Amino acid sequence: MPISRSLRVAGRVFVAILMGVFVLNSVAVVVLNSDRLPSAVGSQTWSEGFLSHTAMWTISLILILIVSKGKLRSFGFCRGKNYKTAQIIIPGTVAGVALAAVLHLFPEGSNSFHLDYSFAQTVIFVWLYASVSEELLTRGLIQSFLTPLADYGFTIFGVRISLPVLIGALFFGLMHAALLTTGMALFSVISIVVFSSVLGLIAGYHREQTGSLIPAIIVHALGNIGGYCMGMFIA
Q1: Alpha carbon distance 71, 130 (integer Å)
Q2: Number of domains in the chain
Q3: Domain extent for 43
Q4: How far apart are the C-alpha atoms of 151 and 228, rounded to whole Å?
Q5: Which of 54, 114, 155, 206 fits a 20 to 30 Å CA distance from 131?
Q6: What is the 3-state secondary structure (H, E, C) of the chain?
Q7: Whole-Å CA distances, 161 to 33, 207, 209
Q8: Are the C-beta atoms of 103 and 188 separated by less than 8 Å?
Q9: In angstroms, how far is CA 217 from the centroid of its own chain?
């Protein structure tokens, strides 16, 4: 690859990561200032998660509007095509179940961040709201911005993984490293980072194949649901 082309590729990847880091840092600022909320709001067990994910999708959407110049369809805001239902449903669910099974082997601190959620809050804020918010950032903003680099990639087990899919998945996985700040056990965090990256590859692949964020959101949600149900089963 010519040096000039390599620099363009590296530059675009750098900008994509920079935007992602900006979103996450902005979310951190919102969370750190959440203690200024009225006590009736701040005392709710779900408030921090709600605030962080609201900030995440809001800032991501603003950046998407700026970068796409309002052409949201090119960033996955459409129904898409070429849906393969079984390939969307099964891998995401299996990834979530597998993660829960691994965490069960080393449970110290692995589920501490969900203990304060009721079932209804888990459905709304973990299965749905978090899935949508995180997909807007990783597959909506980062992966879509990198779409011009889709010709770069590799094939594994007969499946082609493009550079945009890979970068979006790795960013998605590594952003979960922040769970270390919650006191979660190191092995649990590493497991979550690895399985989240795999889930990100699955979500990103379907985002790319269909041209839509909808399959990615479904994969993400099913990963959360599969992990939760497996965790309840083996608890």
Answers
A1: 24
A2: 1
A3: 3-234
A4: 36
A5: 155
A6: CCHHHHHHHHHHHHHHHHHHHHHHHHHHHHHHCHHHCCHHHHCCCCHHHHHHHHHHHHHHHHHHHHHHCCCHHHHCCCCCCCCCHHHHHHHHHHHHHHHHHHHHHCCCCCCHHHCCCCHHHHHHHHHHHHHHHHHHHHHHHHHHHCHHHCCCEEEECCEEEEHHHHHHHHHHHHHHHHHHHHCCCHHHHHHHHHHHHHHHHHHHHHHHHHCCCHHHHHHHHHHHHHHHHHHHHHC
A7: 39, 12, 11
A8: yes
A9: 9
User: 24-36, pLDDT tens digit by residue?
Assistant: 999 998 877 766 6
Are 212 and 80 in contact by the 8 Å Cβ rule? The answer is yes
pTM exceeds 0.70 for this model: yes
Tokens of 167: 């970068």
Phi, then psi, of 69 in degrees rounded to 5: 60, 35
Classify strands 153-156 and 159-162 as parallel, antiparallel or unpaired. Answer: antiparallel
CB 145 within 8 A of CB 66: no
Give 188-232 pLDDT, tens digit per residue: 899 999 999 999 999 999 999 999 999 999 999 999 999 888 877
The b-or-e profile of 4-16 (16+ CB within 10 A means b, else e) is eeeeebeebbeeb
> How far apart are the C-alpha atoms of 207 and 192, rounded to whole Å?
21
- Write the CB contacts of 204 (distance below 8 Å, at least 6 apart in sequence): 138, 139, 143, 164, 165, 166, 168, 169, 216
Checking if the pLDDT of 65 tops 90, the result is yes
Say how far apart CA 80 and CA 205 lie, in whole Å: 13
